[in-house]
Amino acid sequence: MLDLASRTAPDGQPPMLRRPGTPALIRAGVIAVLFLFVLLALPQLLSLYYIDAMTQVAVYSVVALGLGVLVGRVGLVSLGQAAVLAVGAWVAARLLFATTQPYPLVLLEAGVITMVAGTLIGLPALRMRGLYLALITLMLAGGITVVLATTNFPNGGHGFLGYDGSTVHIPAIRRPSIAASDPAYFRYSVLVAALMFLLVFAHIRTRPGRAWAAIRQSEPAALAAGINTTLYKLWAFALASFVTGVAGGVLAGAVHYLYSIGFPTQDSITLLAVVLMGGAYSMWGAIVAALLLQLLPALLNNWGVSADWLTILFGIGVLQVLTTAPAGLADQVPKDLARLGGLVAGRLRRPAPSGDGSP
Amino acid sequence: MRTHKHVPGPRVAAALVAAVGTLVAAGCSSSSSSSPSASGSASSTSVSTSQCGTKPGVKATGTPIPLGAIATNQPGTSFTDIPNMAAAYFACVNDNGGINGHPIKYYIETEQTNPAQIAADAKQLVQTDHVVGIVGNTSILECTINHAYWEKLGYFVVDSGIAPECYSTPNSAAINMGPRYSSDGAVQYALSQHVSKVVFDQSNVPGTGYIAAGPAALAAAAHTPIVQLTENVPIADANSVAIKEVNDAGPNGAVVLNFTPPEALVILQAAQKLGLENRVKLWGCSTPCDTDFLSKALGPKWNNKLFVNAEMTPAETTNTPTMQLYKAILAQYGKSVSGGIGSFSEFGFAEAEIVVHALESVTGAYTVASVNAAIKAVSNFDTGMVCKPWTYGSYPMHIPNNTDYTVTPHNGTMVVAQGCTDISSVDPQIAAYRKAAGITG
Amino acid sequence: MPSWLDFQPFIASGLALGGVYALSGVGTVVLYQATGVVYLAFGAVGAMGALIAWSLTNAGVVGWLAWLVCVLFSGAVTLGYGMLFGPPLARRDPLVKAVATLGLTLVLFGLMDLLWTTSGGQSRAITLPTDNGGFTFGEIQVTWTQVIGLGAGVAIVVVTSVFLRYTKLGTAMRAMANDREITATLGVPVRRVEAAAWLGCGVIAGVSGLLLADLVALDATTLTFLVISSLAAALIARLRSITLTFVAAIVIGLLHDLLTPIQSLSNYRDMTPFVLAAVALLVFSRRRVFSASREEV
């Protein structure tokens, strides 16, 4: 069975809903404080350049979250999430141009339509496992990319496709009236991202999460235990597609203009790379992945370093993660820090180094 | 069961292999300009680069004047040569008196056709770098995404345009003609050779309908049928593209291409390998084909067979003082201009020329208002790089360069096939611009 | 609906395109049969070799020497990757091994764009001496390079099928791809066999890279991600049969080009590999769930 990201998964006990103990409350408190900081204080501290970059981080953290659910929780590798994002963005753009519906409704619709599309595609694909599933998602993504290149994204035109190729003044995709400025739209995207994280969290803590854990452990055993593996795998696809579709809607409003060249097939590969590097299993890993994918290029751009170095870094990161640190940075860094702390503490306690204190 | 071996060895070895491989490849890679014309020109010019500034040899030491640029730079599409050449020109000016003693500080932002990044780059330039002018923008998407921002803040941009908004908005004036008007030029030449049919094929990037409208109008006015095609790029199968184009054009027809140089090259090379180059009356191409790289790679079969629209004065065959200055600055300051002599570096040179000319007329402080007023006031300025003098002007749209040469490959270089010819006013956008600018004829 | 005469010239170009896909697809399947790894960096490694050959030729090095360097480079990089990352990942799922090669792809792709910049309108091309001759089929000229491309695909199919089935080394390779541990306990020198497999496939990647750079384009992006389209042929053969991969690749190439004159479908013809692969996989999987776990290789 796929063991891509599960070697050091932290759940040693069956994840049931239970009374949160003190450590969990402290963790929740820390998360709440961080969230409020990001929501309220961060936009005041950053320049517009970095606010725009962080909005992209918010969008892609949700995409990485979806892929993380598939890869880390269920063990299904999808090499087509960039195409799913493109579909979500397409639907949102079409609705935003064609109707005057309120933004949250458009986001919901984009999510639902993308979810339906993702599930329909997932249904026959689920008969495959492992390598074949990954490659078939790559094929589907390639197909969608070609279609998008030919049909283009809506730009205010008429007809089903909503594309007018001859316009000299392309209208911008609208934003919600309460979040028109860049800092306000950043806050809006953070709120939407938080809602998506809560949605996924709720899934993980209840029955789907347990079923996914069982499937990842051993699919035949899960089947034998009476779990409807097809249903739960499909559910994972649906969830991942839904959140990615919503993220696509937020992306449409963030960038104002959508182009098919913005969603090349290699983006799906880089997305998988950063999700692996960040840690497919933990939800923090999704945020780390998004920071790698969107903040790091913005920083490098500012420092005059070519974006190619980032591609090389991601490649090395994938190799490193797969060979030595399967749970990714989000799991590894705290462990490394703890180990470092232990080393230091050990040194301070004992005057002379002993035996094999090496990690 | 997996035994966890601590393996620093293989990882270090991997890094070593990578490093050695990189060194080998770096030693072999030719990222620097290797066009023979660069070395040839050094002996034919005696112009000193100090002519670029007002006080030869005097380094500028006052408070810097910040300017900015945004250019696409991603695998397969890189326009950084253009702002890099502008930077070379500014470096020369800084070494020779600056602008009334003030050096120019030039910030170049690159982007990978990511709309969010392009918008963010503009904000970085304005809010963090505090630039007072924008010059040298060359991007597939930038004009569309940022034009409202520039208009709101009062920046009058001098750019090398690609998107429709580079030519249809009040705050952008380009040194080049852009894909639509350059394609007009190529189609116009084909029509002047009395072909019976035109096939216009372009890459499927944003704006194909806008670009196609120009050739469509020209062909309609000449009562010649035109077939409009698009290809997804990068082209994976050039053979089928070449066959399709030739079949659609017929023996007395013309095939006109609008692609980036690498894509145009694969189509033309495929046509040659298939033996199709003589199956149509002539081949045409918009400005991107006007490079020595292309003419060298194509070979003699295309002499007087391929006719390329050239927006800029051909550098090889022109020996004016300005052209010599361009080659001298490129040789001395243009180390990061990897394409050497060619239309990209000519764009950068001319755009920098225009802005320096504007800056030299500013009296008092160099603010956004004063600098951009001076840029807008540039009128009938002879850049020495294009057919006619260049004007910005207070118009709702700008197509200041609307006269072109036509060049053709000749044993490795491009030579002039037809001198300066106006783009026909049959194209409605050209007509609208000429009316707004008060140009008759 | 276009007439037969309209379709005819596309048959030759379709076969040539099929040959291109076959080169890449067959190479990938051969490596999978020999090492158990879907070598997704196949295109990138060949592309970098071709770019190095181009640089050497530009610097004055004689043609065949530059091509030799290209092939040796691809062999060395592939061998190095196999030796470094083969053993640690040997017991992992084939999916993990395939994703690891994606890491190598990204590294090479970034390096190529750093070292061979595309600014300045540079358009690079590799020309092989066999480009200048050929014969006429219908009204189209077919170059010897295209014939060689197709021929190389056939040669790889035949030679490697025979090699893997009938020679000792080949059998050892197949055994190792199936189960490395057990093969080791049988006394097969696994490291040497593995090295031979990776080196051989690296050489195939280098030769393919050179031919593809000539037949398609000398462009890092195109050549690196061509492997995705050729993967379709490999998937139709379920990564098992080299012959079926070859046939599927030819069919994909033919169909792709034959769609060109049909106006309504022409712009979608680049989808052909993906649609065919998806359809084939879904049809095949209706009867049985199949996976690429070790037991079934």
Helices and strands in order:
The complex is a heterotrimer of chains A (359), B (441) and C (297).
Chain A lengths: L21 H24 L2 H27 L6 H18 L4 H23 L4 H22 L30 H24 L1 H11 L1 H6 L4 H27 L9 H14 L4 H20 L5 H17 L4 H21 L10
Chain B lengths: L7 H21 L7 H9 L20 E10 L2 E2 L2 H15 L8 E8 L3 H14 L4 E5 L4 H12 L3 E3 L5 H4 L3 E3 L3 H15 L5 E6 L4 H14 L4 E6 L6 H12 L4 E5 L2 H13 L8 E4 L6 H7 L7 E5 L10 H13 L9 H17 L8 H9 L26 E8 L2 E10 L5 H10 L4
Parallel strand pairs in B: 1-3, 1-4, 4-5, 5-6, 7-8, 7-9, 9-10, 10-11
Antiparallel strand pairs in B: 1-2, 11-12, 12-13
Helix pairs in contact in B: 2-12, 3-12, 3-13, 4-5, 7-8, 9-10, 13-14
Chain C lengths: L3 H32 L6 H17 L4 H27 L4 H22 L18 E4 L2 E4 H23 L1 H11 L1 H6 L4 H26 L4 H17 L5 H17 L4 H4 L5 H13 L13
Antiparallel strand pairs in C: 1-2
Helix pairs in contact in C: 1-5, 1-6, 1-8, 1-9, 1-10, 2-3, 2-4, 2-8, 2-9, 3-4, 3-8, 5-6, 5-8, 6-8, 9-10, 9-12
Mean pLDDT of chain A: 85
Poorly predicted runs of 5 or more residues of chain C: 290-297
Principal-axes geometry of chain A comes out as globular
Please identify the oligomeric state: heterotrimer
Whole-number tally of structural domains of chain A: 1
Can you tell me the CATH class of chain A? Mainly Alpha
| The first-level CATH class name of chain C | Mainly Alpha
Mean pLDDT of chain C: 85
Attribute tags:
heterotrimer; B: 441 residues; alpha/beta; Rossmann fold; seven-stranded mixed β-sheet; 42% helix; C: 297 residues; mainly alpha; two-stranded antiparallel sheet; 2 strands
How would you concisely characterize the structure shown here?
Chain B has about 450 residues and is of the alpha/beta class. Chain B has helices spanning about 10-30, 35-45, 80-95, 115-130, 140-155, 165-170, 180-190, 210-220, 240-250, 260-275, 290-300, 320-335, 345-360, 370-375, 430-435; strands at about 65-75, 75-80, 105-110, 135, 155-160, 170-175, 200-205, 225-230, 255-260, 280-285, 305-310, 405-410, 415-420. Chain B has two domains: about 50-175 and about 315-400, Response regulator (Rossmann fold, 3-Layer(aba) Sandwich); about 180-310, Rossmann fold.
